[in-house]
Specification:
Elements: E1 10-12, H1 32-43, E2 52-53, H2 62-65, H3 71-81, H4 105-125, E3 130-133, H5 155-165, E4 170-174, H6 181-186, E5 193-200, E6 224-229, H7 235-253, E7 257-261, H8 279-296, E8 299-302, H9 309-323, H10 355-375
Parallel strand pairs: 1-2, 1-3, 3-8, 4-5, 4-7, 5-6, 7-8
Length: 382
């Protein structure tokens, strides 16, 4: 069942190869989450829709990866991936508990990058109005010469650099609980990419960055926007921050493409973070992004963080349905058996925050929004 709104040409870029590896036995990022998600999308009938296509991802070339990463770093990743020994790998952020090394890591990461490039190529060519590559986005911490925060090759930076070189202006919106520091740094001096990250404050969460004062440099001054929020911010307050900052800035920037990172580690049950969004709060954000995307005409979406499997599987299924303008049922289909315990797409919300803490949360968030208005809005005549 769908609404009367026009049905956008929606591409879902995925293959099971993106889910069939393990970073380490104890690692919180479990790529198998993508396979569970794919099964729920299938059970929900999303791949039977006439406006949804399922193109396979391609492998990114080394030349494409090196547009945004140091050649020596890329060579080290490839050598380790092929079984080589790299005594200096620690200098590149490799071999830590966050970024363990493993056989095949180059190929799986290059395929992830290639999935995002496939999505961006479909959108920029007009073959799709929106393309969702859920394997991407989790590398948003990866730096030019260093792995960081589970990220090795920064798929978003690579894809957006290609779009900029093709003459397109890109608005990047990152709703992951963690600040998208690698993407910010990848375009910190550019006025062709507007990067906006709404996240739990770096005072409380990795990577410790994403403060309002990080506004870009050189030509990019004013084009890096950060909205740090207090831990335990719930749906209503999170959306109030989004509504106040993101739509007016995107409208003023006038991008050719919307690029969104849809991390769902903002969920109240996520084991690594402290924001308190529900799946319906997350999907409301995707709905608001879809309105912006419809005005712009081109939308590339990637996945991101998300370490509670139930939240990931339901939320990204809801996101694809929103992109395709399809109304999901209230209940998870009984034919879905890939993951136990899923009954409804929406959550029962967590208990409201106690008043004594709510005042502190609201004060923190209000200060962030006031600083964004003071530092960024004048740049765009708002």
């Amino acid at each position: 069942m769908t609404s009367d709104r026009q049905q956008p040409k929606t591409a879902f870029v995925y293959s099971d190869e993106l889910s069939q590896y393990q970073l380490s036995a104890e690692h919180p990022l479990r790529p198998i989450r993508l396979q569970h998600m794919h099964e729920l999308m299938k059970s929900s009938g999303l791949f039977e829709l006439e406006n949804v296509s399922t193109p396979p991802p391609r492998m990114a070339t080394k030349a494409e990866i090196e547009t945004s990463h140091d050649a020596e770093y890329v060579a080290i990743v490839e050598a380790i991936s092929n079984g080589g020994i790299a005594p200096i790998m620690g200098e590149f952020g490799l071999g830590s508990s966050d970024n363990p090394v493993r056989p095949g890591m180059y190929d799986t990461t290059a395929l992830t990058v290639g999935s995002v490039l496939t999505a961006s190529e479909l959108v920029t060519s007009g073959a799709a109005d929106v393309a969702f590559a859920p394997g991407g986005g989790v590398h948003h911490h990866a730096m030019y010469r260093r792995a960081s925060g589970f990220g090795v090759f920064n798929d978003a930076v690579i894809a957006m650099k290609a779009m900029v070189e093709a003459g397109l202006r890109v608005a990047y919106i990152d709703i992951d609980c963690h600040h998208g520091d690698g993407v910010q740094m990848g375009h910190y001096e550019s006025d062709q990419v507007l990067t906006i990250s709404i996240h739990e404050s770096g005072q409380y969460l990795f990577p410790g960055t994403g403060h309002v004062q990080e506004i870009g440099s050189g030509d990019g001054t004013g084009y890096s926007v950060n909205i740090p929020l207090a831990p335990y911010t719930q749906d209503a307050a999170w959306h109030a921050a989004l509504d106040e900052v993101i739509p007016p800035l995107v409208s003023a920037f006038k991008p050719d493409v919307l690029f969104t990172q849809l991390g769902i580690d903002t969920h109240f049950q996520d084991p690594l973070t402290h924001l308190s969004l529900t799946t319906q709060g997350f999907n409301l954000a995707v709905q608001k992004l879809s309105v912006m995307a419809a005005e712009i005409g081109k939308w590339v979406a990637v996945g991101g963080g998300g370490y509670d499997l139930s939240a990931v599987v339901r939320s990204w299924t809801m996101a694809l349905a929103t992109m395709a303008n399809f109304d999901l049922p209230t209940e998870v289909p009984k034919s879905f058996t890939s993951l136990e315990g899923l009954t409804t797409f929406d959550d029962i919300p967590p208990e409201p925050t106690e008043a004594r803490y709510l005042n502190e949360i609201n004060s923190f968030n209000t200060k962030s929004l006031e600083e964004v208005r003071a530092l960024i809005f004048p740049k765009f005549g708002i």
